[in-house]
Amino acid sequence: MARRLYERVSHLPIVSPHGHTDPRWCAEDQPFPDPARLFVARRVDCAYLAELVVTHRLDEDEAHDLAYDLAYGLAKRAYKL
Questions:
Q1: What percent of the chain has pLDDT over 90?
Q2: Rounded to 10 degrees, what is the CA torsion of 34, 38, 41, 44?
Q3: 36 is in which domain, residue-wise?
């Protein structure tokens, strides 16, 4: 059964927004200037970083550096940009 399913869908494009993107982006099939930044940065919620600062578990400067690294640095390293 798995082999038959694979044969029926293996030629189709992968459309998997997982709620992190607007589905129209996939439908319009437009290229992103920096897809790594889009997907990696979406994993971080600014409210969570703010909570860490408010509860004194993270210094404000550290939160700023972490937000920048998560939005830009990690994506660039992951995709060797």
A1: 6
A2: 180
A3: 14-78
